[in-house]
Amino acid sequence: MSESIEIISWNVNGIRAVANKGALKWIDERQPDILCLQEIKALPEQIPEDLFETNFSTLSINSADKKGYSGTAVFSQLTPEYTNNRHDIDLAREGRIIEQDYGDFVLFNVYFPNGQKDEERLALKMKFYDDFLNYCDKLRDEGKSIVICGDVNTAHKEIDLKNPKANSKTSGFLPIEREWMDKLVEHGYIDTFRYVHGDKEEEYSWWSYRSGARAKNVGWRIDYFFISDDLTEVLEDAFILQEVTGSDHCPVGIRLAL
Predict the structure, then answer these.
(1) Where are the domains of the chain?
(2) What fold does the segment set 5-256 form as a domain?
């Protein structure tokens, strides 16, 4: 492995839409070691070939059974020892998880469910959350180091969204969802952005398409990198690439000295 590994995560809200805008061309300049995408909304054969010129050595795709919906993908310059992209946690078969073991760490690229539709969907989201944490904890018990990235679909603290009080009864900032994120932290997983940047304000990763929210920076930080606490000593940086457009989310990333 290289002395420093950069991993970038982005909810593209449709990989074909992003390709049509040429919105992944910046990857050629950035050259991350691993690129994790969520909400690709495409089958493997529908992934455009002209996303970027960078030739990643491995590509893992987990498409939802339902066409044009959800789905995840990992482009990697490194070769994982193991890949699991049909996870038991994802009971609805919505293509929400890719797990890869790179030896030094196990990477999870996850598109966590949205709970805004109804109570049933919120219950599914909370079950997914709990099952996922239990699975990660089992790997920790086996001595594995963990990197979790993706769209968590919840803002953790009031600092993580522009209008916390107005959204206190909205899924994505409900007490029950935020309590799960508290639990994640209590179990020894570190919010890398806060670890590096402390209480830096107005740092968001998602903006509604309505009312010019992005131009006004009326956003939410719902895209995260969490690492198991044993990796904090190799965490070099954590960042949000707000200048990258093409989706209602922007990319987030970390650098690890491995």
Answers:
(1) 5-256
(2) Deoxyribonuclease I; Chain A (3.60.10)
DSSP-assigned states of every residue in 76-122:
ESS--SEEE-S-TT-TT----EEEEE-SS-EEEEEEPPP--S-HHHH
> What was the pLDDT predicted at 230?
98
- 151 included as an active-site residue: yes
Strands ordered across the beta sheet of 58-62: 58-62, 72-76, 34-38, 5-11, 252-256, 235-240
Sequence-separated (6 or more) residues with CB below 8 Å from residue 101: 80, 81, 82, 83, 107, 144
Gap between the Cα atoms of 201 and 170, Å rounded: 21
Of 28, 33, 90, 151, which one is the catalytic site residue?
151
Indicate the range of 2-6, 148-152, 172-176, 228-232 predicted with least confidence: 2-6
